[in-house]
Amino acid sequence: MIELVNSAQQHAALGRLMMLASSNLPIGSYTYSQGIESAIEACLINDEASMLAFMQDYLELALLGYELPLLALIVQALANEDDNLANALGADYHASRESKEFLYESDQLALSLAAWLDEVLELDVPDPLIAQGFLPVFATIHAHWQLSPAQAMTTYGFGQIENMVLAAVKTVPLGQMAGQRIIWQLQQALSVGITHISHKIEAVYQNFHQGDIDGNVDSADRRPALSRLYSQLNMSANLPNLALLSCQHERQYSRLFRS
Asked: Domain 36-236's class?
């Protein structure tokens, strides 16, 4: 009986992860390209090889280098009822959006995901959390469902990769098989990276003292603590070339996507 219950729980968790990873989830993520359309316009992406190279950099620098470890930290903090740390990390994520388009995308997806949670699951998402943007809301639902940081990273990472590759398939254009080959290679690297991050998060979080993130002090005083945490995890949100592509996209003559 216990085995049947555990199996049912595992299947339920898998189903939830698949729903959140799907680009068909009605939150509008498929209308954004995360800089892909601008990179195509700038001739940085024009075939399968250049798209793979672009996405390998994006995976290494944007996802594995910042967003995925940040996501894992928020899920871990919420699981341990460390709300001060979760809020500080969420605020830092919102501040890390380096262009108007990326900020608007994060805000709009957060609103849409909160509406989906309300309409489908009858879960109320607080306005202060929505104001932090998409990733903190995404982390909160995983913590609510008691899913692991690794599961959250896998879901978020695959969703981002698939959505960006599909944008290139439609726009370059690339063939469907070329897109699948790119996703397959990126997924292998994503899995290796998530395993590495998971081990580091577990070790670093155990040594991180909640007293470093005090909800009674202003954000300027919280920066040294977050900087130490980011340094231990080798995290950075500084991606100037991607930010420039996003800024160029704001003035692009003809656009299919919102970012």
From this structure: mainly alpha
